[in-house]
């Protein structure tokens, strides 16, 4: 039996029963649904309760056609549906420190990011008398190309853009931030100091974002758990950062030609050059703003053009995935850490201003969500550190090593190919 | 509201419904459920009707909506497809019989994840290009290619189990113009 697929597909329709569509019934049903939606919207506004419609896609120009069906419900994805992810680990490092007074604290070997061309940003320090070195590890060969000494201490380093032609890193704390730019062709570093006002929260690193030629710094103020505030400065050049009042209170991230913002009240907006789209208007159903920090901004990730927002809720968190034209997906108890065109990395650890909040004794788990079929894969324990990334068809994550305990630091970083 | 002409919508629905239901059937494996998919898709099209641009392809919008409704329904699992032939079983009837062939194909399709199945149906039943399938499914072209390849591989395995062979599909014959309903 040899079959041609096209022929087989057409033959499969051979027993097609008669069918006619009742346009009048469709019009009636459509009219009822439209009236019901209107009624629900009015009721929701009047009662000021949690959202009845979890998300409503509203184009900024209502005269335009809506290219996708408006989602009116939510798909709940449970963590118990996750299978063990089968990952082919192609690179790994490990750092162990024992609290025994030795100088181990000055040694580390971490993997901190993935470049667009499939290399791994490696950060290694071999002892107290030398600074940390950065290198690009090629997982195909196992060799590391160590870069010239960086022009600044790497304390609080955050990769902002790891492109084919340049690496852009944010470093520093408080009001002393620098942007380090490494020209990969010329193999030269450049450092730009970005001055933000005194008084930023120093115990949690700020959220740093790079968009086009500006670096954005988002943080709350020290001792004042108020709204998120943003400043920005040009790169290169740096200098005093300008306030960004339009972003006040919101979490923000930038993707290719778009900006995603999410507000503590649940409003999520995707802005492109042609206009803005309200992705969601309210907090997810069942999510109440945390009483101890009601102005806490959500955490935002752009997985390609898919907005992914983690809302802090009283007692837990909810991550919402808003795929264009699809019913929104809600996953309770996890935070989104990274995304690419087809995946999102989630972890049961809570985040605060984009930073992981690891609570000792609370084991976390990492998951990989496939945006195409909504399958969840477990990616071991962890994370222990914030270094999680998706790029170039690879996943970078970390998890506690076998010796990790309250008396010893033991973390393993791993990189795997996703295909 | 000029576009919200019920007579015009009725004519459009009557013209599109048979083709949409065939695609929906290949997506879900049940003619009654396929009719439900088409019904739901038309309700959504009706709601969007006043905003749809007559200069743009309203039929393509209807197809995109129907495919997404079919995928959503298969994910919800409330009406899980029960294939008449379990893979791994030999068909009781003569394998050259057309009924057995159809049962084998539909059973193999039923085991594909919804998006893989949609890729196979849209690429090889509707003969849509990779780019158009990506637009219908709202994903990247690379995803369409990988999902299609995985779907074809699974179908080949299913056929091989029954001593059959699924030939590599020829390049699109373009029996249907892009964006036009069959």
UniProtKB/TrEMBL annotation, chain A:
Protein origin, superkingdom: Bacteria
Family matches, as InterPro entries:
Quinoprotein_ADH-like_sf
Where are its TM segments located? 40-59
Q: Which UniProt keywords apply?
A: Membrane, Transmembrane, Transmembrane helix
Q: What is this protein called?
A: Uncharacterized protein
TrEMBL record, chain B:
CDD domains the UniProt entry points to: Sigma70_r4 (cd06171)
Q: What's in the keyword line of the UniProt record?
A: DNA-binding, Sigma factor, Transcription, Transcription regulation
For the RNA polymerase sigma-70 region domain, which residue ranges apply?
A: 15-78
Q: Which organism is it from?
A: Nocardioides pinisoli
Q: Which domain of life is it from?
A: Bacteria
Return the NCBIfam families for the record.
SigE-fam_strep, sigma70-ECF
Q: Where is the RNA polymerase sigma factor 70 region 4 type domain?
A: 104-155
* Gene3D superfamilies for this protein: 1.10.1740.10, Winged helix-like DNA-binding domain superfamily/Winged helix DNA-binding domain
Family from the record: Belongs to the sigma-70 factor family. ECF subfamily.
Task: State if DNA-binding is listed as a keyword.
Answer: yes
Q: What is this protein called?
A: SigE family RNA polymerase sigma factor
